[in-house]
């Protein structure tokens, strides 16, 4: 049953018609728990609340269904406006983005042009931009673009997914760049030809890449709600004497609030991934697919 629900939500997340319908009806039935609103102002207000109890953030203007150059430019404009709003408001937040929303599926040149516009503005504000990793089909080109951008920019990082077979090699290769990485398990449905199908193997690989990247002396964002992974990281950095300035824990907006606050009280840096925007449906479906408890939360809201 759980796997059936997971597959259903992942398929819905890629559906253009379902996305269109969701936009029409807005953030209902529990989506507002995971998405900070549809406007920049709402997202900044959410970050301000997080900052008040010691959490920092990374803002993501949601957008995965981009089919024209005009839409890609508009999406890049929203990223720039978000960076401006972060600077003017004084909140503590980075920016996260998906390169498909900047035109990656239209042309590499268009995506690069938009990325450079965004990184230039981030550099003006002294801010940092994280490139989200998407499905396996976009993995290699995303890493290629990241490497090219690092020739000009040091205020950009990328995400690496533990469930892919290639990941250990990617970590080794990226060490030459002293890359700032967000390490995640991975949330897309992938073929067993390219990804570990069993959770135990994903967890083992996740621990391995956390060890590798930290031991290499690189900044590491451990993005997980799994307390076993979090405790593993704590034990590893303690045993190795790794400074807390070299890593942070990252979690999603609206998930494991108590754990986030507990880690802050323990003196760890906690960054919350705060998504906003009208194109929220694909993100919301992936959150439902990841965790059955999220589904029951939504169902309860539907029948209130």
From TrEMBL:
The keyword Membrane does not apply. It comes from the Bacteria. Residues 45-298 form the Proline dehydrogenase domain. Its EC number is 1.5.5.2. InterPro entries: FAD-linked_oxidoreductase-like, PRODH_bac_arc, Proline_DH_dom, Proline_oxidase. Pathway: Amino-acid degradation; L-proline degradation into L-glutamate; L-glutamate from L-proline: step 1/2. The keyword Flavoprotein applies. Substrate binds at residues 98, 286-287. FAD binds at residues 133, 161, 185-187, 199, 224-225. Keywords: FAD, Flavoprotein, Nucleotide-binding, Oxidoreductase, Proline metabolism. Binds 1 FAD per subunit. SUPFAM superfamilies: FAD-linked oxidoreductase (SSF51730). GO terms for biological process: L-proline catabolic process to L-glutamate. It catalyses: L-proline + a quinone = (S)-1-pyrroline-5-carboxylate + a quinol + H(+). GO terms for molecular function: nucleotide binding; proline dehydrogenase activity. Its cofactor is FAD. It is an enzyme of class 1 (oxidoreductase). Signal peptide: none annotated. PANTHER family: PROLINE DEHYDROGENASE 1, MITOCHONDRIAL, PROLINE OXIDASE. This is proline dehydrogenase.
